[in-house]
Amino acid sequence: MVATVRLDDILQNKLNTLAKTLNKKKSDVIREAIEHYAKSVEKSKKNRILKAVEKTKNADKDEYENFEGTLSDGL
């Protein structure tokens, strides 16, 4: 697939500098940046899911303990 990207002067200069510094083609730098960004987003999603699971586990534990406490009261 061929994609066209419009860059302002600042981003164009950054891309040129990165490509020269890394001794890579600009297209390689762009591909690697997309890969890095995608991995970052996936890691963030995974962390949010893990936090939600932990929060649910804690809520379930609290509910269980409250229920057990009610049973212990002899009601």
Number of domains: 1
Mean pLDDT: 90
Shape: rod-shaped
Label the structural class: mainly alpha
Please provide the count of β strands: 0
Word description of this protein:
With 75 residues, the protein is an all-alpha fold. It has helices at 9-22, 26-72. The protein has one domain (9-72). Helix content is 81%, strand content 0%. Helix 1 (9-22) packs across helix 2. The model has no long low-confidence stretch (mean pLDDT 90).
Concise overview:
The chain is mainly α and 75 residues long. The chain is built from two helices and no strands.
Notable traits:
75 residues; mainly alpha; 0% strand; single chain
What is the strand and helix layout of this fold?
Elements: H1 9-22, H2 26-72
Helix pairs in contact: 1-2
